[in-house]
């Protein structure tokens, strides 16, 4: 798979569930380099896995703030850029280009995701089906990007 496509997939996954792509990178073999060594440290890997799991659960709670608030947008774009850079580098591409693509696609899905969920909720009468479909999509895209 082309490096920038991998970065785009990681970015969309991060826009949907911010820790999904980075956790997938931590749980899969990567390239050489300092960032990969840090990412694969036992405590970092465990922390990212826990963060991703809690986010999957927390997203369904009514008290969870909207992802379109500035701090959430900044976090998703940052994590999309970092994971985009990592997966682009793993695919033989440039980290800077991958980071840019990952950040932009994370921003795009950060705003498109709630619209998608609202559409599904309108059709089904409930937000849960859209949320679960978005979970599945984020995990699948993160897996594809990291491999």
What can you see in these coordinates?
The protein has 147 residues and is an all-alpha fold. The protein has one domain (3-146). Helix content is 78%, strand content 0%. Helix 5 (70-90) packs across helix 6 (95-124).
- In terms of quaternary structure, the protein is single chain
Q: What's the main sheet like?
A: none
- Rough outline: globular
Uncertain residue ranges:
none
Portion of residues in beta strands equals: under 5%
> What structural class should be given to the helix and strand makeup?
mainly alpha
* Record field, number of beta strands: 0
Overall average residue pLDDT: 92
What is the CA-atom radius of gyration, in angstroms? 15 Å
Number of helices: 7
The SSE string, one letter per element, is HHHHHHH
Structural domain tally: 1
What is the structure about, briefly put?
The protein contains seven helices and no strands.
Which short descriptors sum up this protein?
7 helices; single chain; mainly alpha; 0% strand; globular; 147 residues
SSE arrangement:
Elements (H helix, E strand, L loop, with lengths): L2 H14 L3 H7 L7 H6 L2 H17 L11 H21 L4 H30 L3 H19 L1
